[in-house]
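Re-running the complex after MR caught last week's input typo. The corrected sequence lines follow. Everything else is unchanged.
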Amino acid sequence: MSTRQNGKRLPLGAFALAALLLGAAIARADEAQCQKQETDGLAAVAASAVIPVEPTSLCYGAADENHSLTKEIRALVDATPPAPGNLSLALQKLASRVQDDELYGAKPARDEYAGLARSAAAGIEGGVGPGTGSVVTAKWHVSAGQTSALPAVNVGRILDDGCGQTPPGATPTPACQKAINESKAWLRVFQLTERTLTQYSAPALNAILQRSTARLAMWHAYRDDGLPQFQWEWLLNSWRLNKADKGRNGRERDKDGQPIGPMKVPTDQIIFLHPGVGLEYRDKPNKASGSDDSKTSPIVYLELIGRNRWSWNESTGQMIGGSGVSIIATYADRNHDTKVGYGLQFHSRLTKNYTLGITRTGDTTSVVFNADLAEFFKDKMAYWKGVEEMSTK
Amino acid sequence: VANTHLIFLVHGMGDFAAGWSRSAQQTLQDQYATYKQLKFIPFGQRFEFVEILYNDEFEALRKKWRDMNKALGDALKSMGGGEIGRTNEDLEVVQKLNDAAGVTDKNRFLTTHVVDVLLYYAARQTAATVRESVRKQIFTALKKQVDDGGLIRWSVIAHSLGTAVAHDALHEAFSDEPTEFGEKLAGIAPATCVAMIANVSRLLEWDIDVYLSRTRPGNPDDPDAACRSFLNAHNTFDPFTQPKAFRPAAQWPNVGVRALGLFQDIETREIEAPEMVHDLDHYLRNPAVHGPLFNCLLGQKVLDDNTISDAHARYVTHTPLGSFGEFVNALKEFQLGEEDSWAKVFSTWAAFLALLPKGLPR
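Corrected-run output:
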């Protein structure tokens, strides 16, 4: 039996489905409220002649539903963290209930569900990976009145078959009421099954979140705890990352040639044309030339090329270690001495702000103390200038 | 609420901060309330928005560069009275460094739009950070959903640059190596609907092919797919969606998925105002977009084609081009015939004047 809407004929069972699912969508508190919503929904549907189909049941099997089966299963599965033994037991109880209770309709469908539920229970006991094989959660997601796991049970069809002769808004016939009860029971079982398998997946989901949290911490540490990178260094290191990602040690590829998972967080960085300022200490001022230079002098420098390395604590995302070396060129504005020097600069993450360099200027070896400019603000420079002035007096 | 369906909103290019999605949320709720088929399922009882923010990652990088350049300039300047920086040439260098610091000022269109897009496209570490940030926000919300006793129900609505970010983040999530628990994420927590609004994922494609990635519809029948349904919306006049447009082949990702209607490509032509053509809210107000979007979120065709096309027809009449078309159609009613009387001419003229918008010279 059908009715007409927008030129299309729709089965009357769809109205009952709409009302049922409507109630399921809205009601939360208890079974009585669910039924009240169904009644209200049926009246509204009859009045407006539209189909408010909500594809998933949010009432039957929900945590706050006052139903014996829901309470029994929820008591087993809702613990944090869930106990695998209880999850398996919950599925076995659901299997037995469905298989033994004629409320769930035709025997083959009941047997099929029982088989699937017991298989999932065995999977849990056997430690099958969440989201795989018999414990795939997504297949129990109700869509358009049925699940992918058990397509033999179609709530829409059950209602259509049972309520097809019942006009919208009318008191359901015994056959229609039986179909409604069967549909509600199946929706409850579907949600409880999905919830049980969701709980089985919960530790995995938590592990995924922890891994993501750690990775993000690594990327933040790369940006904030590694050596500061100017824009051109950022792009140069990006080029290296890209090359490494496509190389032998990069991400593996799936059957479609696409990278698997996120890019690996690097354990090194290239230092390239990185400017800075600092202080140079020469133990031997050029007295021969009559120099009145002090032993210390402010300098500007350029790290021509270098590399900084570290490792990761994979579980926390914290950077471990961190040391590097670069070739630098320095310039000190000394009145009577060589101004340009070349040498090596050494980095350590533990003393990031004050690294050490050794340069050769003419025939003199100098020690360079570098304050990284990202951390080196005006007041610090003023402090060092004061130190220098004191040393020259 | 445990049993609600989470809708993750992912922003596009621009200087976004917490609360950026309020307008889009309101638009969606307002439009949802206009359909009698949906009023029995109040939006707030069924859905819950989760705002995704990744602009803070760009901003952190911009700030770092700003501070580095400024610190360099300040340091040189502070030495100016001493040994270095006392010449005009030196001071010019300082000025240029300060200018360089200013380039990354937050309030410039160049840095909040263009540079962000370029950084995402060209800087691998920036893209990786942004993707991980998005994933972490999604996983955090999903874990809470489970901890609260609910089922995993979620969808993504991404806009502009956010479509590329969401696409890449989801592919990497759903292709990732198992953890010690041996999970398969697509079997645990696939999205119900991924909606790409003003999709630029192919334009910004770098390491992941958008036509071969896991960010495709078909779950659970496709055990690797990130979502059940995929919606792609673009406006003919939106300039950002034209180059390297996301237009998959007829069999993408497979014939079965297409036969089930799990992928929808929606092209709109309506413009409320030229400057709005790329705006998320502008897209969401269009029934040709939000109608299928609601169906996608609900996982079922609750709004039928007639309902959507009727709503769309009403919407069109409120756009400038649509109202002009209505005006032209009305004018056709005033066609006078060769033999019409003066009375007919005058009555038609009066009706024509009444039709004209107020304020026009008559």
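None of the earlier attempt is carried over here. The first helix of chain A runs from residue 12 to 26. The two ends of chain A are 107 Å apart (CA to CA).
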